[in-house]
Amino acid sequence: MGKYDKLRGLVPSYKEALSELKKQYADFDDTDLLQKFSELKSQKQTLDLRTQLLEKDLAAVTELLIEKMEAKNLTQLKNSKLGTFSLRTNVYVTQKDKERLFTWLRENDYGDVIKEQVNPKVLNSLFADILSNSSLPDDAGVDVFLKHNITNIPIKN
């Protein structure tokens, strides 16, 4: 197989969930598996496209509801058949200047919210690099899982 064999596998809970599903395809030969893979991939692409369209429709209707509720200064709409709909506001912040933000937080007694962390994507990339050049260090304090994927380039008719 390959150099990652000892790490091969998925996140444990996901792997367990797949066990039962895999049983129904266990007797398939290579051709049957390739056919099933192609069918499922095609179905997923169709559903993904439909989901994208539904998300746009939902976003448009949501924006209209928000605009109407704000125009009427409402935070709730009640409907005897559909229930209660509440307008909630969530705040999302992105940092533009880390040093300036940290200084402001410390000066305004919010320094306790500053945490040292490593971006998960950076960590994944770093360990992919480490694993391609050597083995996983025992003292790194991480668990590594590999998720394998199959890509398909369909034959054009």
Mean pLDDT, rounded to whole units?
Answer: 85
Q: DSSP helix count?
A: 4
Report the end-to-end length measured between terminal Cα atoms. 34 Å
Spans where pLDDT lies below 50 across 5 or more residues: none
The 3D shape can be described as flat
Number of beta strands: 2
Structural class: mainly alpha
The largest sheet has its strands arranged as 1-2
**How many strands, which pairing sense, and closed or not: the largest β-sheet?**
2 strands, antiparallel
Total discrete domains: 1
User: What pattern of helices and strands is seen along the backbone?
Assistant: HHEEHH
Radius of gyration: 25 Å
Characterize the structure shown.
The protein is mostly helical and 157 residues long. The chain has one domain (5-133). It has helices spanning 12-23, 30-71, 98-107, 120-133, and strands at residues 76-79, 83-86. Strands 1-2 form a two-stranded antiparallel sheet. The two termini are 34 Å apart. 0% of the residues are buried. The mean pLDDT is 85.
List the topology elements.
Layout: H1 12-23, H2 30-71, E1 76-79, E2 83-86, H3 98-107, H4 120-133
Antiparallel strand pairs: 1-2
Summarize this, please?
This protein is mainly alpha-helical and 157 residues long. 50% of the residues lie in helices and 5% in strands. The chain has one domain (5-133).
